[in-house]
Amino acid sequence: MKKHILLLGNGGFFAEHIKNVIKNTTQHRLSCMTRRRCNLLNKTEVDSLLSSELPDIIVNAAAFSGGIIWNQNNCDKIFHDNTLMTLNLLSSASQIQSVEKVISTISSCAYPDINEDIREESIFKGPPNKSIFYFGMQKRNAIIYSMALNKQFPNIKFLCPIINNMYGPYDSFDMDKTKVVMATIKRVVDAKQNNLSEITFLGTGKPTRQFTYVEDAALSILKLIESNTDELLINITTDEETSIAQLVYKVCEIVGYNGKIVWDTTKTDGQMRKSMNSDKAKRVLGFEAKTSLEDGLKKTIDWYLTKAKVN
């Protein structure tokens, strides 16, 4: 059935891919909102937007975030602004009669720093890693508020897919705000073009992550839009676990950079391992990430070289 979908965060990395997959593969009516159209920090503007749009489904991909160092330097604003945006949107959505479903995209930063196969029920087993504590905790606020609203408003489904370490085309390459994959690509490409003999990376390179290609993640949101599930939390992740060092060397191989890699072990590694279990997504949504890290990196590097006009 054709639905009216309201997408928030338009112009952002993830929202761009969600928009594309909805437009290119469905007949749903899609309205995309940027901060210029509606400031989620302003409750009056949010109320006005939802009252005028009357969406069936809301997808919130808006976020104020950056890399580890940027997050640590902006922890107060990260916690305040992201929490306020979430509270305003979810509160307003609960009062709009047309709304059937609200999907709040959650970063895997919300999970505790535990060295185990992380399932959805692990969410409150401990605090997030200290390197991303405030960003992780404000994402938990979205989960807790969604839990409360599901009890209070049973006719609306408030869902919180937890998405693991996304990367891909349209990601920011602002070094203050980008994440590890795009930061690595930019540094390696720049080093090759500038004939640098070595690159220094922070930490030991030993932490492991599952890097989820953004187009796969966007497809999971479409599956949630069209699913009847009322599961609050569903992990969206690749099953491929990779160390930071393996990521760096793979990017060097694809780019053709042959210089020396130096590890600055005086800097923090962050969480040493974050491995999310994808069984529920496969069972409930029929979703499985299909893009290998090598293929995803090639696509992302190609995008960076063309769209960023660096070659």
Account of the protein in words:
This protein is 42% helix and 18% strand. By secondary structure, the protein is α/β, with parallel strands linked by helices. It has a domain at 4-169 and 210-240 and 274-291: Rossmann fold. Strands 1, 2, 3, 4, 5, 7 and 12 form a 7-stranded parallel β-sheet that branches. Helix 1 (13-25) links the parallel strand 1 and strand 2. Helix 4 packs parallel to helix 5 and helix 6 (180-193) packs across helix 10. The radius of gyration is 19 Å and the shape is globular. The mean pLDDT is 93.
Strand and helix layout:
Blueprint: E1 4-8, H1 13-25, E2 29-33, H2 43-53, E3 57-60, H3 68-73, H4 75-93, E4 101-104, E5 106-107, E6 117-118, H5 133-152, E7 157-163, E8 166-167, H6 180-193, E9 198-202, E10 208-210, E11 212-213, H7 214-226, E12 233-236, E13 241-243, H8 244-255, E14 260-264, E15 275-276, H9 279-285, H10 293-307
Parallel strand pairs: 1-2, 1-3, 3-4, 4-7, 5-7, 6-15, 7-12, 8-11, 9-14
Antiparallel strand pairs: 10-13
Helix pairs in contact: 1-7, 2-4, 4-5, 6-8, 6-10, 8-10
